Amino acid sequence: MDDARAGAVFHALSDPTRRQVVQALAQHGSLSASAIAADLPISRQAVAKHLAILSEAGLATSTPAGRERRYDLTPAPMTDAVAWITRTGAAWDDRLARLQQSLNRP
What pTM was computed for the model? Predict the structure, then answer.
């Protein structure tokens, strides 16, 4: 995952409302902005703005359905972000293990 894409995913997921939108899409599948807004204390227009940010990060896709658009979760960028976190965490784990070994030497 390149830095720009990772940054977009982390930015998109940094907002608690967007995390709620992601959770709704994960639980219910394809939803309209109106359906998502019905379960949140914000307007459909606000949900649409959050969905645009999620779409820019590659976390959601939309398809036309009559007069509205239906949104689906695209989890692949989250997998890439988790891989980035895992790699970064592993590097710190290695450093801490070496430090512990150094401290335990007589």
Answer: 0.80
- Backbone φ and ψ of 38, nearest 5°: -60, -25
DSSP string covering 38-81? HTSSS-HHHHHHHHHHHHHTTSEEEEEETTEEEEEE--HHHHHH
In angstroms, rounded to a whole number, what is the distance separating the alpha carbons of residues 18 and 77? Answer: 15
Query: Are 68 and 32 in contact, with CB atoms under 8 Å apart?
Result: yes
For domain 3-104, is the CATH number 3.40.50.170? no
Q: What is the pLDDT of residues 42-64, one digit of tens each?
A: 999 999 999 999 999 999 999 99
- The rounded distance, in Å, linking the Cα atoms of 28 and 10 is 23
| Extents of the domains making up the chain | 3-104
